[in-house]
Amino acid sequence: MLHAFISKISVVNNLNFLTHSPLKAAPSSLGQNYNIKDKMSSEPVNVNDFKELARLKLPKMYYDFYAGGAEDEHTLRENIQAFCRIMIQPRVLVDVSQIDMSTTILGHRISAPILVAPTAAHKLAFHEGEQATARAAAAAKTIMIFKRRDISALLVQRAERFGYKAIVLTADTPRLGRREADIKNKMIAPPVKNLEGLISIDVNSDQGSKLETYANEMLDASLRWEDISWLRSITSLPILIKGILTHEDATKAVEAGVDGIIVSNHGARQLDFAPATISVLEEVVHAVKGKIPVLLDGGVRRGTDVFKALALGAQAVLIGRPVLFGLAAKGEGGVRTVLEMLKNELEISMALSGCPCIKDITRSHVRTPYDKLPSML
């Protein structure tokens, strides 16, 4: 049961619901021959360790569904590698005896600028599914986006009635990307109780995966910028748009009157060779000129990644796969640990960089590959 202090933000079309909540060591043997049981019993020391635990625990079909990207997965790799090309420039002799990671998102104070991204089918990872994830987000005093793909005035009205605090419009899924791991595995879409009656196709086909058909029937390929006006007309809630990757679309988003932007390539699951989100973040931030907040998802695996995104102008980051891997490995407790690990790493990064609070993190604290260009000309 979600506690009364949980407020929620829902995401439409491809509607995601965002819930705001007042948020052992290495294997015993150091040899290389410890078995799977030893691996499963070992405690992760960072977020990346949860990925291997999830791989060992989940059926291959489900692990690949979570871990995979579109086509050759270039963007999937680049989402992470692009962070590695950004260096942190620390300041010294700053009083960092007290570190304050708290920040405000859409008027809600949270413990750290780390949110839970909208991801599908949590029950494939753990029997309590999204409920367990939401409880972990509540314990971490952060925000969770709960995913719904159907879009309707009725759904928006229900979101308002149940206390959700914003709408997030996912704009980068006019149709499903080509996810070849799911095709090879003949991925079977899980039954979704809250969408019963909305779809009529047979997803459990002996002809192979019909996941693409299943998803495409719930997506709207005709969605246009003008539809934001319709959405605005049926709700008084703030509207964020997710899936922005260019200066041009960021400018249009501001002109359309949205209340925030999420820089996202859908976890590299849609268009392969789309840019890594961190590589275009600054472009989007410059386009909005401080008029609306900008958030980012994609490739965040370390507290240093969070720090880098904040330095380049993001107000917060969202994490997806690490949450799912934590959920698969250790249930609700795994999600809590993932969030706490990232918060702890961010706190250390801030202290070692001379930043006592979030507002102290500035563009001068990072150096990107593009910063070197003027000196090379």
UniProtKB/TrEMBL annotation:
Which cofactors, if any, are listed as required? Answer: FMN
Query: Where is the major localization of this protein?
Result: other
Does the record bear Ubl conjugation in its keywords?
no
The active site is formed by: H266 (proton acceptor)
Which protein are we looking at? (S)-2-hydroxy-acid oxidase
Family indicated by similarity: Belongs to the FMN-dependent alpha-hydroxy acid dehydrogenase family.
- Organism whose genome encodes this protein: Cucurbita moschata
Subcellular location, record wording: Peroxisome
Question: What keywords appear on the UniProt entry?
Answer: Flavoprotein, FMN, Oxidoreductase, Peroxisome
Among InterPro entries, the record links this protein to: Aldolase_TIM, Alpha-hydoxy_acid_DH_FMN, FMN-dep_DH, FMN_HAD, FMN_hydac_DH_AS
- Single annotated GO MF: (S)-2-hydroxy-acid oxidase activity
Transmembrane feature ranges: none
Residues involved in FMN binding: P118, T119, A120, T170, K242, S264, D297, G298, G299, V300, R301, G320, R321
Q: Which PROSITE patterns match?
A: FMN_HYDROXY_ACID_DH_1, FMN_HYDROXY_ACID_DH_2
EC id: 1.1.3.15
Coiled-coil annotated residue ranges, if any: none
User: Does this UniProt record's set of keywords contain Lipid biosynthesis?
Assistant: no
